Amino acid sequence: MASVKNLKKDINYVLSDVIEECYQWQILQDDSKNKDKAESIIDEAISIFDELIEKVNTKKVEDKKAHFKAIKEELQTKGQALLDKIEKL
């Protein structure tokens, strides 16, 4: 099982990469309407970050291994969903 510290780092790296990709996309755009779409993806990434970190910090868990595995899987699916949204911009 990976450590809690490494799981938090993974969450941070994945979602910060998504946010960075949105910022880079915004720089390349001239239309302000499209920039708002990227802002909504950034807001969603921040809320996912908060949600996942809260789950990691939950102390009352019966099966820690299954709990952290579920968080890691959730990070993968939600991170990929955000990247798919960026591709559609």
Q: Could you describe the 3D structure shown?
A:
With 89 residues, this protein is an all-alpha fold. It has one domain. Helices cover 83% and strands 0% of the residues. It has 3 helices and no strands. It has helices at 4-27, 32-56, 64-88. The longest helix has 25 residues, at 32-56. The radius of gyration is 15 Å and the shape is elongated. The chain starts with a helix and ends with a helix. The model has no long low-confidence stretch (mean pLDDT 90).
How many distinct folded domains?
1
- Structural class of the helices, strands and pairings? mainly alpha
| First-last Cα distance | 36 Å
Total count of strands: 0
Fraction of helical residues = over 70%
Number of helices: 3
On the 0-100 scale, what is the average pLDDT?
A: 90
What is the H-and-E element order?
HHH
* Overall form: elongated
Which stretches are low in confidence, meaning pLDDT under 50 for 5 or more residues running? none
How many strands, which pairing sense, and closed or not: the largest β-sheet? none
